Amino acid sequence: RFAPNKGHLITLKAFREIIKKVPNARLWLVGGRSSDPEYIKYFMKVKLLANEINKNAGKEVVKIIINAPSVAPYYELADICVAPYKFHYPSGFFPAKVVRYMLAGKAIIATDLPEIREMFRGKQAGILVPQGDARALAEAIDYLAENNEDRLRLGLTAKKIAKNNYLTKHH
């Protein structure tokens, strides 16, 4: 869902820097839309910034997918997944999206929230960045883009942790 607490604008600000260094990088933003006026206003900001990045790149480097029947195929396309959540402490939420990223075996960069830090077992299964810090997010993306071995290791570790801790016997 395109919502202010999901951090799409932070991701786009980080990607604006990444595309300068990695011209073949692509960003897929996949989510649902809400009829809530606050969410519509937020989505329009996301779309405006994505269009600006695409215009400056001279091609479509940011693609927005709305109400996809399944997000799983997009995980397969990704090398890196991000979850730059924006919450006030204590957040008290369960980041199901992060678990899905982990189960897909992807390297993950996420906001340093207690819930995610616990899921990552510190920093074993992903990179944590300060909340709202587009520069730190860009640096982490750049690092993983340039360090294939670490990216793959983080993804494998995340998948193992997720399978051992977040799947029930029925899955």
The fraction of residues assigned to DSSP E strands is: 5-15%
Number of helices: 7
Q: Tell me the number of strands.
A: 5
Computed over alpha carbons, the radius of gyration is 16 Å
Major sheet: arrangement of strands: 3-4-5
**What average pLDDT do the residues reach?**
91
The biggest beta sheet, please? 3 strands, parallel
- Structural class of the helices, strands and pairings? alpha/beta
Ends distance: 25 Å
Q: What share of the residues lie within helices? A: 40-55%
SSE series: HEHEHEHEHEHH
Low-confidence stretches: none
Global morphology: globular
Which helices and strands appear, and what pairs or packs with what?
Elements (H helix, E strand, L loop, with lengths): L7 H14 L5 E5 L5 H21 L4 E5 L5 H6 L2 E4 L12 H8 L3 E5 L2 H6 L7 E3 L4 H13 L1 H18 L6
Parallel strand pairs: 1-2, 3-4, 4-5
Give a quick precis of the structure.
This protein is of the alpha/beta class and about 170 residues long.
